[in-house]
Amino acid sequence: MKEDEPQETLRSENRTMRKLNITIDTLSEQNVTKISVEGFLDAHTVPEMEKIIHGLLNDGKYRIIVDFNALSYISSAGLGVFMSVIGDVKNNNGDIILMKMPPKIYKVFDLLGFTEIFTIVDDEQTALNSFK
Fold first, then answer.
1. pTM of the entire structure?
2. Can you tell me the distance from the alpha carbon of 35 to that of 47, in angstroms, rounded to the nearest whole number?
3. Is residue 113 helix, strand or coil?
4. CATH number for position 47
5. What are 45-58's pLDDT values in tens digits?
């Protein structure tokens, strides 16, 4: 399925195909990269997210904001993407700041104790200030 095509229904399973749209922006302030995610971050879409994050880290970009505003769902595989790199990011004097997290996704992060590991903020300016 192409990115610009509408979601299709799988007739055999009667489910909607889930997809993830990712936008990457470099914020000139403080050399920060913002990743905006929309849709579903699950076992099927995790490889794309991993590729993007590992690409940033390979380029020495350790100051990352992830905008969850349009994220509908995150699975344990999706959570694992962030957990697998946070140590490396912090060891390189960086951080992953999560922002605009929908309440149902925040609840998952909170239940698993991830709110103690990640900084979660409501807006971009607060996220940028976290790097100062």
1. 0.84
2. 15
3. coil
4. 3.30.750.24
5. 999 999 999 999 99
